[in-house]
Amino acid sequence: MKEKLLALFSERFGTTPVFYASSGRINLIGEHTDYNGGFVFPGAIDKYIMAAINVNGTDKVRVYSADLKEYSEFGLQEDEAPQQQWARYIFGVCREVIKRGFTVKGFDTVFAGNVPLGAGLSSSAALESCFAFAMNDMFNENKIDKFELAKIGQSTEHNYCGVNCGIMDQFASVFGKKNCLMRLDCRSLEYEYFPFDPQGYRLVLLNSKVKHELVDSPYNKRRASCERVAHMLGVETLRDATMEMLDAKRDEIGEEDYKRAKYVIGEKQRVLDVCDALERGDYETVGERMYETHYGLSRDYEVSCEELDYLNDIAKECGVTGSRIMGGGFGGCTINLVKEDLYDHFVAVAREKFNAKYGHEPVVIDVVISDGARRCD
Ligand code: GAF
Which atom of ligand 1 is nearest to the CA of 166? Predict the structure, then answer.
């Protein structure tokens, strides 16, 4: 990818760039918990966005998307936002850096990526983190700390892209470390690296190819439900709520909001169970919790879809250890924890059955846990 970007950059801008990259992510468990102050358990993956960048001595950003084959040019003032949605991610990052009192000057860039779009692998967080990391390195002597870089990406989503997301995706993209998952407490922002090398098991994603776009999805509505319930229970976030507290107010809380909160409260414990189980090498318990999460996301949180439920059923029928919808939902992938010796059978059955029902195969994505944001010298 570096060679391709270098060639495109030289041709278009004629100077010598520096390269930066940041990764997409998976999440083993802990879904829709980040904006509820709960725990998440993500890791960065070997799919990333890479950008070739150089200062251009103007007050403009000139950017070419190698994948979309589209060009955009914009200034760095608030009223100079570009029209194209993809360029708004970069504009947003620049603005959020500037708003925090740091520097961004005009630059030229060409970028590309291999994070599948709309698959729930956080291609947008990878793009934001790549540019946040680059702006820090190029213009700010790396004075912005890593959490602030993640928050710059998150604020970009909130303020320039219309998604009220939590911190998980940007955290994973910035903090990702090879062969490690990370447990993040989204209330205190304390985190811990967990070496992840499940002997005898593999992680595989099955992309349903059902389009996942959080901007147009009811993602923000889910978050609003949770905040409403937290308010009614007198707690800051659902992290501080228990099932007893929820049940005590069941009559006042509408049925829909009750189900949303029930899922979130259950998920909090499931993440902790999975961490304990991993420390014991108990992958059966990890897998059970993954199925429970899928059930909750499908029935109570209602962010699954027919195709993802079907992939989950196939996994269960094949005896796969754990399987669930991953990421924000409304389409995208299932994440599957599968024994090595079952892998080929499972993938073949999933391909065949899904194709017979929906007319196309799911895309199989093998996952390698990798480093996050970086300069690529
Ligand atoms: C999306 C959001 F961006 C994350 O913050 C998180 O809420 C996730 O959905 C669900 O766990 O990826």
Answer: 5
